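User: Structure with nicotinamide-adenine-dinucleotide, tokens only please.
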Amino acid sequence: MNMSSKVIVTIFGASGDLAHRKLYPSLFRLYKTGNLSEHFAVIGTARRPWSKEYFESVVVESISDLANSPEQAQEFASHFYYQSHDVNDTEHYIKLRELQNQLNDTYQAEHNKLFFLSMAPQFFGTIAKHLKSEGIVDGKGFERLIVEKPFGTDLETASQLNKELEETFEEEQIFRIDHYLGKEMIQSIFALRFANLIFENVWNRDYIDNVQITFAERLGVEERGGYYDESGALRDMVQNHTLQLLSLLAMDKPASFTKEDIRKEKVKVFEQLVNPSDEELKKQFIRGQYRSGKIQGKKDISYRSEPNVNPESMTETFASGAFFVDSDRFRGVPFFFRTGKRLTKKGTHVNVVFKQMDSIFGQEIAPNVLTIYIQPNEGFSLSVNGKEVGEQFQIAPISFDYETDATATGASPEPYEKLIYDVLNNDSTNFSHWNEVKASWSLIDRIEHMWSENQVPLHEYKSGTMGPQASFDLLKDYNAEWVWQPAIEE
Ligand code: NAD
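Assistant:
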């Protein structure tokens, strides 16, 4: 975007953790790059009775590392206004409308409005309803809504939530955040897949044996025990992030690189997700929970001993499984995933494992693997087979590694910065469409149901390992094995 946006941004939940850690810094980065300049203001709302001065000081503090000078930080913060607000109180929306109109005139924002719901989802419906009934959403200028995850806890609650939002906003105006989709390397999957002949032509079931997605965390539930115990890994990581990533890996080439065509292909993948029989479901998806363990001499406690966690909890802190996509491109190719807390190492990786070639000169040949590193390092690597130096003809794997260097990583936009930028530009490519959410819940609900009835075991795993043995055995059933197996240091 060359021009700066004209917009009044209203943040619900302005005193919260997400607003402080992510939203203010991301808005500031957009300000520094000129995407926001004089024609913008932010209304922060939350229950606390803050003054404008106090709100400004909160904003200044949250961007202190990023600002070139205290004056720059102050100038940015002067665009922030605070409105104490209870989301259930109609009177408060009337005041909000007055402030909105007043700021629109002061900043000449052309009635463009962006609403960011950064609070618990149970409030989304009432906020959307009031925005319309109290005339804050008035059809003038652009009006866009950003909602945080989780989008429902099952198909029923997600549908209900969606219905409530749709009474005020059209699907094209709703941007459902999946912050992983703002990550640089996820976005570069398009470049890797479609701008390289060597990948584009082999990105199908004839050449790819399996795809492996790992979202590994070293940390446990920390202070989020209460929330996590109600949610679990499947809802927290698989329904959204894992399936979104899968859709980018599995989709067909869009007719053009417009948001409409990309979305069409992504939605198709969700609709083509294979819905296995109950028996298959039991075998294809496994769950685990961490027990205590030791890593680099440091002891981790068991999940059931974590604060705010039920000591008899059956919630999974690890989930693993195999998805299939019923498309001509990928029919029969497993998309394995695993995600968990208290694993050996933090890292989000994708491994695309190509088919094994026949042996040559009587030597076994390792399959080619394309690895995409999403976090904490960004980059990719490709393993190929070469000849070892020497008189003998000995084949050995070599890998081409590319890691985004630290300066480039430092300059790469924060996921929230990139995503807010996209919303300002009305680009919904990196957000979840309702059809995607709906299709993913339909399948996840079935797994969730089976697990809640304890129809399959809850496998234990030692903190500091890469999950229970069952996750390794799962791949064996498909003649595969996890490519990423970080060394365990006790
Ligand atoms: P938080 O609990 O820190 O903040 C919640 C905010 O909502 C506060 O500003 C609070 O004042 C406000 N609020 C609560 N009840 C209210 C009411 N009745 N009327 C008006 N305001 C009210 O939460 P958070 O961590 O900032 O998360 C916000 C959203 O973002 C949640 O949906 C969460 O799931 C999602 N999210 C957060 C993170 C994160 O890193 N914090 C990551 C991913 C998603």
